[in-house]
Amino acid sequence: MLDLPAPAERELLLWCPGSDLLRQIIATLREDPAETTTLVAWASHLGVSSRTLTRAFLAEAGMGFAQWRAAARIRQAIVMFARSEGIVDVAERVRFRSAGSFNTALPRGTGMSPERLRSQ
What is this structure's pTM? Predict the structure, then answer.
């Protein structure tokens, strides 16, 4: 008999789209999670409509651009916590307005407070 763990309430993995259309966006956000270029600006830069980018994100990542970018920021914050970086530094580097807003957002994305996540 197999003893399988219950599925996670929140998924910490982030699907990274691999299409040529989204490659530059993904690379930019991986390099700088605080990047603030809007979907409309990306569409203009890439020579497509914002609706085309929205459809591409939904098809390839299962979520819209803003949701994917927020998830990417949370994921990067987790990596930074693993390196024992301070909460204020992490919040700033992943583009939260404050450590307080980061403290609010992290549990929504991971189900854990920053302190609990750091202790894991």
Answer: 0.74
34 and 94 Cβ atoms separated by less than 8 Å: yes
Return d(Cα 6, Cα 92) in angstroms, integer: 34
Please provide the size of the chain in residues.
Answer: 120
* Radius of gyration for the alpha carbons in the chain, expressed in angstroms and rounded: 16
Average pLDDT, the chain: 81
User: Each residue of 22-42: pLDDT tens digit?
Assistant: 999 999 988 888 899 999 999
Give CA–CA dist 41/117, Å, rounded: 34
- Segments in the chain forming alpha helices (H): 20-31, 39-46, 50-61, 65-82, 87-93, 99-110, 114-119
Instruction: Round to whole Å and give the CA distance between 40 and 51.
Output: 9
